[in-house]
């Protein structure tokens, strides 16, 4: 359920009861939030706090420890806590499924029991459904209960020898390392201003000042006007001697991989605005990663190209993506995305998938460092802090829900574009089939929009003409769009595999 729909459900009660990872130097972070990202690593534990001040502490097995059968069984736990007083710590656990010998290590539907020092035992919940974050599919998560989270946190900050073990009904064992756990959880408290407060994990006290408050997700508004078409004249600049020299000078200042003077540059060009181009070329390469330099180049030759990043893997339609594997097997990734907001490229999101510990292909967890809401056009909730009491008024609930809806619409448009791209790849050169697929996708989406409107009209009418009529309508749209987005993600996965 939408955060704002939850507020809608009890909004009047609340309202009346209240007293009411480094980046290229020339890129502008979204509203400067990148500077607020914090991280700390110690032993087998790490903590990362994103630009909303939400922190995630992640622990792993000890790579040198083996179970009683002498086997190496990877495991990871993640604790998440938003900023602010009384913020709840939630937890999940995942068991290593990455195999180098073809054997399936996925715990699946096994019954698994958490044991702490052989005195506390608790059966874990079943696996949660798989989910997608930033185009990566995550699976195998098990939600920890409040009691399991509490007992684990006690054990992880306990002095002396502690054994944290997970046993399956099939005989498998996993051991969670405590090496570095206390230091990392203390740092998590420190980042959120909770040391010596009643809400700390490690050092509790009675202090109530200096607690870091949650910060709302930054909003990036994409211009409504379409990006201009790249012309033949634009593309011809790739072989223009003067233009090449201009880019070569910029390339020499930014990259290691610079062709000899008698070798042509391999440039990719795309028109971005009536007077600016996006120009990219290979900047560096390594064993399993590479990076392209991307510049914003003015048509005026007197203006120097502006470097956006030296580590891109792709550019399309105002979006620059970076993507890197931490090592060859691909069990840890990091990525960043920059989006054109009409005047500059903004860091829209960045994340890692945790340490390289053989937990899962792609990595164990989605650990964001920069998050944002991307929308087309004007922000419906401009000037409103949706993490504050402003969001509890009827108008605030509606506007914040409309912002959330606009962000979901943007994500949905991206999913639809990828589905169309994969459909095109499926039919390859069969143009008629490609057109049929595109038409079918568009028709299905239109039918869904008609359904959403009708369904939400019913909910709106249930409130008659009361003041909650519009909040219910928008909240219904948010919920149905979230479900539609999940359906599109599954459709894309089917086309991919």
TrEMBL record:
Keywords: Signal. Residues 386-488 form the Lysozyme inhibitor LprI-like N-terminal domain. Transmembrane segments: none annotated. Pfam families: DUF1176 (PF06674), LprI (PF07007). Residues 1-32 form the signal peptide. InterPro entries: DUF1176, LprI-like_N. It comes from the Bacteria. This is DUF1176 domain-containing protein. It comes from Shewanella fidelis. The lineage of its organism: Bacteria, Pseudomonadati, Pseudomonadota, Gammaproteobacteria, Alteromonadales.
């Amino acid at each position: 359920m939408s955060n704002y729909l939850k507020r809608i459900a009890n909004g009047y009660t609340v309202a009346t009861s209240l007293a009411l990872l480094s980046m290229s130097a020339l890129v502008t972070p979204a509203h400067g939030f990148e500077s607020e990202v914090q991280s700390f690593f110690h032993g087998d534990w790490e903590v990362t706090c994103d630009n909303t001040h939400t922190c995630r502490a992640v622990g792993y097995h000890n790579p040198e420890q083996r179970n009683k059968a002498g086997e190496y069984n990877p495991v990871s736990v993640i604790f998440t806590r938003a900023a602010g007083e009384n913020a709840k710590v939630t937890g999940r656990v995942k068991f290593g499924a990455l195999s180098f010998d073809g054997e399936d290590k996925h715990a699946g539907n096994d019954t698994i029991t958490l044991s702490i020092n052989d005195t506390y035992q608790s059966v874990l919940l079943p696996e949660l459904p798989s989910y997608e974050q930033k185009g990566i599919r995550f699976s195998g998560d098990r939600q920890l209960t409040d009691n399991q989270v509490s007992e684990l946190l006690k054990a992880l900050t306990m002095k002396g020898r502690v054994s944290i073990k997970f046993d399956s009904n099939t005989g498998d064992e996993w051991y969670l390392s405590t090496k570095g756990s206390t230091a990392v959880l203390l740092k998590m408290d420190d980042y959120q201003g909770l040391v010596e407060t009643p809400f700390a994990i490690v050092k509790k006290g009675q202090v109530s000042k200096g607690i870091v408050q949650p910060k709302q997700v930054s909003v990036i508004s994409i211009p409504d006007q379409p990006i201009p078409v790249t012309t033949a004249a634009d593309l011809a600049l790739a072989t223009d001697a003067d233009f090449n020299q201009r880019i070569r000078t910029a390339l020499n200042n930014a990259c290691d991989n610079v062709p000899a003077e008698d070798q042509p540059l391999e440039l990719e060009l795309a028109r971005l605005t009536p007077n600016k181009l996006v120009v990219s070329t290979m900047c560096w390469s390594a064993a399993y990663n590479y990076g392209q330099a991307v510049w914003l180049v003015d048509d005026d030759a007197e203006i120097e190209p502006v470097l956006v990043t030296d580590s891109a893997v792709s550019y399309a339609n105002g979006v620059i993506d970076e993507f890197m594997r931490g090592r060859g097997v691909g069990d840890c990734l990091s990525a960043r995305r920059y989006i054109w907001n009409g005047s500059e490229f903004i860091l829209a999101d960045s994340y890692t998938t945790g340490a390289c510990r053989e937990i899962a292909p792609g990595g164990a967890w989605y650990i964001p460092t920069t998050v944002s809401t991307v929308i087309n056009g004007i922000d419906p909730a401009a000037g409103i802090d949706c993490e504050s009491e402003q969001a509890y008024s009827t108008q605030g609930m509606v506007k914040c829900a409309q912002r959330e809806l606009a962000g979901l619409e943007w994500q949905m448009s991206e999913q639809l574009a990828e589905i169309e791209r994969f459909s095109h790849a499926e039919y390859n050169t069969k143009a008629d089939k490609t057109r049929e697929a595109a038409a079918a996708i568009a028709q299905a989406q239109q039918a869904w929009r008609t359904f959403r409107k009708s369904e939400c009209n019913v909910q709106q009418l249930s409130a008659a003409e009361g003041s909650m009529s519009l909040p219910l309508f928008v909240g219904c749209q948010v919920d149905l769009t979230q479900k539609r987005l999940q359906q599109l993600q599954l459709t894309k996965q089917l086309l991919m595999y």
